[in-house]
Amino acid sequence: MQLARKCEVSRKAFPSLFYKFGMTKKSGNSLSKFVIILAFVFVILTVFFFVMYQIFSKSIFETLAITFGTTAYHFVMRLMVGLFIHGIFKNNFDYNKKYFQERPFEKKLYKKLKVKSWKNKMPTFIPNLFNLECNSLEKIAGAMCEAEVVHTIIVIFSFLPILAAIFFGCFWVFFITSFLSAIFDMMFIILQRFNRPRILKMEKRL
Questions:
Q1: What is the C-alpha to C-alpha distance for residues 67 and 63, in angstroms, rounded to an integer?
Q2: C-alpha angle 129/134/140, rounded to 5°?
Q3: Could you tell me the pLDDT band of residue 29, with boundaries at 50, 70 and 90?
Q4: Interacting residues of 123 by C-beta distance below 8 A, sequence separation 6+
Q5: Domain-wise residue ranges, the chain
Q6: Torsion sign across C-alpha atoms 43, 44, 45, 48
Q7: Which residues lie closer than 8 Å to 29 by C-beta, 6 or more apart?
Q8: Per residue in 64-73, pLDDT tens?
Q9: Which is nearest to 145 in space by CA: 86, 203, 93, 83?
Q10: CA-to-CA distance for 42 and 63, rounded, in angstroms?
């Protein structure tokens, strides 16, 4: 009851901010289900074309197996990292830690990157974690910290497929796909670091 009242006060006091953060929108888990299905499909396709290559020894099957295998890695790795980190911390990160504090240069950087113009267009894997109807501002800040850690680990792991170039060649193909993948997740890191200080300011004002 206390949380519900606090959330209601928050929405009335800062309606525009809650709209910008997407905290009043109800959405299901369609994105998460879609990602899981895609990961499963890419794994199946990898196995299928690998078997076809073993049987027929056609280079096209090897190429397809490597392509779908690399794609499957990026999807499965993201799911595993998210599950592993959430299984340990369950959004209970201490947002007061120095690592999560906003650096002096960040505001200028985010302005140059025009974060405000694209932040609302980014997808949310589990929207309920950032929904004020079932979470306090403090809990949401913790979820933002966890999301930042998850995407940071993913950025690092995104470059592991480059090692496959040792066996299959095509270094630049693996490098470019890994680099683009890392850039994509960097956007989510920026998003969390951009929004979290604003959430904490709101929490202090309540």
A1: 6
A2: 40
A3: low
A4: 31
A5: 2-205
A6: positive
A7: 126, 127
A8: 999 999 999 9
A9: 93
A10: 14
Residues 6+ apart with CB under 8 A from 10: 18, 132, 137, 202, 206
Q: pLDDT-derived band of residue 103, with 50, 70 and 90 as boundaries?
A: very high
3-state SS of the chain is: CHHHHHHHHHHHHCHHHHHHHCCCCCCCCHHHHHHHHHHHHHHHHHHHHHHHHHHHCCHHHHHHHHHHHHHHHHHHHHHHHHHHHHHHHCCCCCCCCHHHCCCCCHHHHHHHCCHHHHHHHCCCCCHHHHCCCCCCHHHHHHHHHHHHHHHHHHHHHCCHHHHHHHHHCCHHHHHHHHHHHHHHHHHHHHHHHHHHHHHHHHHHHC
Q: What is the pLDDT of residue 148?
A: 97
The tokens for 38 are 């895609």
d(C-alpha 131, C-alpha 103), whole Å: 26
**Of 43, 95, 96, 48, whose CA–CA distance to 71 is shortest?**
43
Q: Are 100 and 149 in contact (CB under 8 A)?
A: no
Number of CB atoms found within 10 A of residue 25's CB:
13
pLDDT of residue 197: 94
Least confident of 10-24, 39-53, 68-82, 118-132: 10-24
Q: Which two tokens stand for residue 147?
A: 């999301």
